[in-house]
Amino acid sequence: MTYKFWMVVDVSEVLYGVVGNRLPNHKAPRFIHGWRSKAEIEAARLAKLYPAGIFVILEAVAIVRNRRTSWSNLTKIDKPKKEFIVSDLQTRDEAMQFDDIPF
Fold this sequence. Notes:
3 helices; two-stranded antiparallel sheet; alpha+beta
């Protein structure tokens, strides 16, 4: 699976200090381009449409995600069960032994 993509952003208000260094909501990117060439074409189109804009192309350079899943039993029980975390190496059957689903 590829995570490479590009986005076009109008940074004119940010660069001119109108709103500090935070992008205003109406300037937030709304489309993810799968190819740099498509992002460049879109930036050129937007520059013609909005001559006062300053359009930059941002490239995804890193992926950050949480791959751990944890469960906690939320029902009242006599003996408290410990919360546990299923690692990527743990099998589905090993994880399922901790649930209280009868099927």
